[in-house]
Amino acid sequence: MVNKVFSVEDGNQQTTSAVTARKRLYKDIDLSFAKAPSNDVYKKTDLASVKQAIKNLLLTNNFEKPFNPNFGANIRALLFDLADGRLESKAREKIQFAINKYEPRVEIMKIKVEPEPDRNDVRIQVNLKIRNSSTTFDISTSLNRLR
Fold this sequence. Notes:
Helix content is about 20%, strand content about 25%. The chain is an alpha+beta fold. It has a single domain (about 10-145), classed as Nuclear Transport Factor 2, Chain: A. The strands form two sheets. It has a three-stranded antiparallel sheet, with helices on one face. It has a two-stranded antiparallel ribbon with strand order 1-2. β3 and β4 form a beta hairpin. The mean pLDDT is about 85.
């Protein structure tokens, strides 16, 4: 029996089935840096690892990653633009460019951007598919500015 240890925000990742031509194991460390019972840090594997990488990519602004100033979607910069139709298309373009450039493990299925100007909020939902697999998943995040 194999026990997989996931962090709390990953939920139940063991119910997803995937059919692949070649088995690839994606793995990364959990960015909470919490201590696992084995005295190591928690690890993220497969779907959880890809989800973490995409979320980090979406929430990273340009110049935040040392030695790679163009890394990230830089969508927080759009919070201060006018909430019109161009905001949605700019956000979609930035998200699509960042994922296509920095995350070769996934294909974009759909990007949904919903600005809520009365709440100073932008909700983003990206539907993705892992390449060479039938696994699809959603990444949702909300960006807001404080007054």
